[in-house]
Write a structure and sequence with these properties.
Blueprint (H helix, E strand, L loop, with lengths): L1 E7 L2 E8 L2 E5 L1 E5 L11 H6 L5 E4 H6 L3 H6 L3 H5 L5 E4 L2 H6 L4 E3 L4 E4 L6 E4 L1 H11 L3 E3 L11 H26 L10 E6 L5 H12 L5 E4 L8 H11 L9 E3 L5 H8 L5 E3 L2 H7 L2 E4 L2 E4 L26 H9 L3 H28 L2 H12 L5
Parallel strand pairs: 4-5, 4-14, 5-6, 6-10, 10-11, 11-12, 12-13, 13-14
Antiparallel strand pairs: 1-2, 2-3, 7-8, 8-9, 15-16
Helix pairs in contact: 6-7, 7-8, 11-13, 12-13
InterPro entries: ArchSynthase1/Queuine_TRR, TGT, TGT-like_sf, tRNA_ribo_trans-like
GO molecular function: glycosyltransferase activity
Pfam families: TGT (PF01702)
């Protein structure tokens, strides 16, 4: 059940009650594609850095170790030793990202595994069954994520097929949740709005999927090549057609500035690989922009990554030491940067929630964006 606590303009302060605990929104979901955050981050670490939701990927876990294996081991929560909510992406994004390895048909998508080349078929029912075996808290509907430069004709056909697939997902999810051997019979289902940068297709699709009365709604197919301005425009046109009393999830986004802008347009769920991916390359986020710790100017810098930050890296280590670890290719350097970045994102969401509750989100956003654009170094 989603509880809308406060609105400040279009910004939403909410609370999603799930079988695996409460999610305070707006929330950033920490991405652990293969049931682990890249960068040697454990689930014990995730609790220390204030993670609310961990996100894993249906396609990748189906390929390795296999969803049946995870089910035999008690589901993804027992498998990775995590007792808070988990969202599983449906595998639909791999329809986009593995374009050279797949064929899309009405029944579903035929893949060649990116690991060993073996043939894989995934349609709406298969995606729901895999996610049911994983026993995640929230399952995402199986969709096609078309290219942002797809023609209008292709986009219309794709979105219509995604709508048909969503109806099949909902029916199969209801069936799976009724079975005696289902690990999580309370699994939630979020539908996905598509339509690229075509406003009218987005609006029509939003209206169609809202009629299906799902547990939440995502805006997909953004941050895949269009400009930030186009993304914000599509959110402004689309989000008002999604229910305010359900979670609104912007998939795969993004930078701190992206999140601040999207919250102001009514979005309250986010995920992105940026904090972990950038951290693994020595790029760390601060309230005054991003730092590259490989830069020589940090060689003798005894300050933490960010003054006042309470993450495991900043509480103990200096920029100079972390830079040394990165240069020496010591895994600890990468790990500390990832921990810092995820802590930064999770703390940013705390600050956003507080600003909405206080009724001054616009001013908070203005000041935060100004700070991010003005590095201290």
């Amino acid at each position: 059940m989603y509880e809308l606590i406060k609105r400040d303009g279009l910004a939403k302060r909410g609370r999603l009650h799930t079988v695996h605990g409460v999610v305070e929104t707006p929330v950033f979901m920490n991405v652990g594609t293969a049931a682990a955050i890249k960068g040697a981050v454990s689930t014990v670490d995730l609790k220390e850095i204030k993670t609310q939701v961990e996100l894993s990927n249906t396609y990748h876990l189906h390929v390795r170790p296999g969803d049946e294996t995870v089910k035999k081991l008690g589901g993804i929560h027992k498998f990775m030793v995590w007792d808070r909510p988990v969202l599983t992406d449906s595998g639909g994004f791999q329809v986009f990202s593995l374009a050279g390895l797949r064929k899309i048909k009405e029944e579903g998508v035929y893949f060649n595994s990116h690991i060993d080349g073996r043939k894989i078929f995934m349609g709406p029912e298969e995606s729901m069954r895999i996610q049911s075996n994983l026993a995640s808290t929230i399952a995402m509907a199986f969709d096609e994520c078309p290219s942002s430069v797809a023609t209008r004709e292709y986009m219309e056909r794709s979105v219509q097929r995604t709508t048909r697939w969503l109806a099949r997902c909902k029916a199969e999810m209801a069936r799976l949740n009724s079975l005696e051997d289902t690990i999580n019979p309370h699994q939630l289902l979020f539908g996905i709005n598509q339509g690229g940068i075509y406003e009218d297709i987005r609006k029509e699709h939003a209206q169609q999927i809202v009629e299906m009365d799902l547990d939440g709604y995502a805006v997909g197919g953004l941050a895949v090549g269009e400009s930030h301005e186009e993304m914000y425009r599509i959110l402004e046109e689309t989000v008002p057609y999604l229910p305010v009393d359900k979670p609104t999830y912007l998939m795969g986004v993004g930078t701190p500035a992206n999140i601040l802008e999207a919250v102001d347009r009514g979005v309250d769920f986010f995920d992105c690989v940026y904090p972990s991916r950038n951290g693994r390359h020595g790029h760390v986020y601060t309230n005054h922009g991003k730092l590259n710790l490989f830069n020589a100017k940090y060689e003798l810098d005894s300050r933490p990554i960010e003054e006042g930050c309470q993450c495991p890296a900043c509480r103990t280590y200096s920029r100079a030491y972390i830079r040394h670890l990165l240069k020496a290719k010591e895994m600890l350097g990468m790990r500390l940067c990832v921990l810092h970045n995820l802590y930064y994102y999770n703390t940013l969401m705390e600050e956003i929630r507080a600003a909405i509750e206080a009724g001054d989100y616009k001013e908070f956003k203005r000041q935060k964006l100004s700070d991010l654009a003005n590095p201290l170094d």
